[in-house]
């Protein structure tokens, strides 16, 4: 808990205050610093040992799978990115026509058609 407070707070003093407030432990700031640094150095030494052990392995063991039983199937997915897929035109007789989503292009085309129809009606009525 002391180490957690030491690494999660901006200063060891704030870690000490958090321990006093949350856990009811009175741990001096300097002790939080010493313990946190000591455990941190131990973790760095462990990591260095693991790195050296890995580097001393032969090449084939370095590149082998860490899983002893490998799978026979792999699934690869592609990101569509900016790929635009337009929906197919829904027939007028389709009962669920209102549930189909229209694309922006479909909406634009509908607006143009209705505008052209309106212009045509105005011209006919003017004659």
Q: Layout of helices and strands, plus pairs?
A:
Elements: H1 2-8, H2 12-23, H3 29-55, H4 59-63, H5 104-126
Helix pairs in contact: 1-2, 1-3, 2-3
Fold and architecture overview:
The structure is a single chain. With 127 residues, the protein is mainly alpha-helical. The chain folds into two domains: 2-63, no CATH class; 85-127. 58% of the residues lie in helices and 0% in strands. The chain has five helices and no strands. α1 (2-8) crosses α2, α1 packs across α3 (29-55) and α2 (12-23) packs across α3. The radius of gyration is 34 Å and the shape is flat. The model has no long low-confidence stretch (mean pLDDT 78).
| Total beta strand runs | 0
Tally of domains: 2
Structural class, by secondary structure, is mainly alpha
In this structure, how is the largest beta sheet organized? none
Q: Which range does the strand content fall in?
A: under 5%
Estimated helix fraction: 55-70%
Q: How would you classify the quaternary structure?
A: single chain
Shape: flat
Q: What count of helical segments does DSSP give?
A: 5
List unreliable stretches of 5+ residues: none
């Amino acid at each position: 808990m002391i180490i957690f407070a030491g690494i999660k707070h901006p200063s060891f003093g704030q870690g000490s205050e958090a321990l006093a407030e949350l856990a009811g432990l009175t741990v001096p700031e300097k002790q939080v610093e010493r313990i946190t640094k000591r455990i941190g150095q131990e973790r760095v030494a462990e990591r260095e040992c693991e790195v050296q052990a890995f580097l001393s392995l032969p090449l084939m063991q370095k590149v082998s799978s860490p899983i002893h039983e490998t799978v026979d199937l792999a699934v690869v997915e592609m990101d569509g990115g900016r790929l635009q897929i337009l929906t197919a035109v829904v027939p007028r007789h389709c009962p669920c026509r209102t549930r189909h989503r229209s694309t922006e292009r479909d909406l634009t085309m509908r607006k143009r058609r209705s505008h052209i129809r309106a212009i045509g009606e105005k011209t006919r009525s003017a004659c």
